Amino acid sequence: MSPLERLGYTQEMSYLAHFKLADQPFRLTPDPEYVYWSKQHARAKAYMESTIWLADGFVVITGEIGSGKTTLLQSFLEELADDVVCAVVSQTQLNATEFLQAVLTEFGFKPFNKRKVELLDMLNMFLIEQYSSGKKVVLIVDEAQNLSTRVLEEIRLLSGIETHKEKVLRIILAGQPELKETLESPKLKQLMQRVRLRFHIGPLDRREMREYIGHRLSIAGREAPGLFEEACFDVIHRYTGGIPRLVNTLCDTALLCAFAEERQSVGIADIESAIEELGWQEHESTTGRFAALSRKIDIDRPKRYLTRIELRSDGESLGEYFFEAGRVIAGRSPDNEIYIKSKYVSRHHAQLTSDETGCIVEDLNSTNGVFVGDDRVKKHKLEDGDVVSMGVHELVYTDLRQAETTAEALQLDQPVEESAINET
């Protein structure tokens, strides 16, 4: 019988008292009180806030599934001033007319049984009236990755509504990574020209994830440190990829497992039990996929590097980095795995994702772009020896999978030493 089965449903939340908690720290329901302001989340919120003071504010925020976009939006909404009128549309599998009806409904109208031209006239008049009253109007579209091209084109037209002085509608689109790909379609070139700011929220790194767990425990009333033993954090990151929603799920289950065994803290054994209860396997990427493991957790497993990056500037080598499977960020901010101190490099300029199939570089909406050779790229699979340019710096990629394969081949071809023959 598993730990959770022994626990039983009658003791449903009594582990809170056992661990000296006043509230459930890892619930999945979005709660602005629990927001952890990582550098990524703080920047995304700053971009959203810019829509208020930019008359032509149009911001696109994307993030991995479970990265905290909805909680971030709720936090933003809670802090809006009284002179801001806001509509939030989260049902996005709509045609153009239904979308306009949804927007007007959020603004307090009953726009049903109206033709599209009437809907547009109602919305236009409402926006002009709000502007005349000194109000700022913000339209937030959550789950925007589901919007059709036609609806996105409708949003572009709405963003152009203006008085003789300025535009009167501010827009925030929030969605999963697919939204980035959709917006980069040639059909939506005009829409992208309207977008002032774009930002992608990635997973938490190991340090941020540890702070995130501590933050939620603190908000939930835990005063004493050490509820999760130190060795747990690397394993939690390996199995969640730093995705907040997955971190919440694993930590909550681990607490239940520890409580079932009457332990005062969560250790590796409890993390293992939680993983077995959830049926999880080691996280392979930030897309929610998992790779199979046929072995138990091995904290001291030898590192297997897949990627080597040499950082250069003006032909001079500034350092080299070795990476296992996973995602790393290069940029001007010191929290990046590849730190590049240069005014030509954005704070979070590009990401490199390594796995068994190779390495992919992706531009994170940087100011000056990412180049492979002479070509500017958004997302590009690297070949051994490729040179990635970011401002005046270069990242030289070495595929260590090839080196490993070559070494194995040489080992197989190694002739038997004479001494070994004589011994036989």
Strand order of the largest sheet: 7-6-16-15-12-13
Portion of residues in beta strands equals 15-25%
How many beta-strand elements?
16
Task: State Rg.
Answer: 26 Å
How would you sum up the major sheet? Answer: 6 strands, antiparallel
Unreliable stretches (pLDDT < 50, length at least 5) are 4-12, 285-301, 406-424
Distance between the termini: 53 Å
Number of helices: 15
Helix content: 25-40%
- Mean pLDDT equals 83
Task: Report the principal-axis shape.
Answer: globular
Class from secondary-structure proportions: alpha/beta
Report on this structure:
37% of the residues lie in helices and 20% in strands. The strands form three sheets. The protein has a six-stranded antiparallel sheet with strand order 7-6-16-15-12-13. It has a five-stranded parallel sheet with strand order 2-3-4-1-5, with helices on both faces. Strands 9-8-10-11-14 form a five-stranded mixed sheet, with no helix packed on it. It has helices spanning 3-7, 15-18, 39-53, 69-78, 96-106, 116-132, 149-159, 178-183, 189-194, 206-219, 232-240, 244-260, 268-278, 400-413, 418-423; strands at residues 58-63, 84-89, 136-141, 169-175, 197-201, 307-313, 316-323, 326-331, 338-339, 350-355, 358-363, 370-372, 375-377, 379-381, 387-390, 393-399. The chain contains 15 helices and 16 strands. Helix 5 packs parallel to helix 6, helix 11 packs across helix 12 and helix 12 (244-260) packs across helix 13. The longest helix is centred in the first third of the chain and has 17 residues, at 116-132. The protein is α/β, with parallel strands linked by helices and 424 residues long.
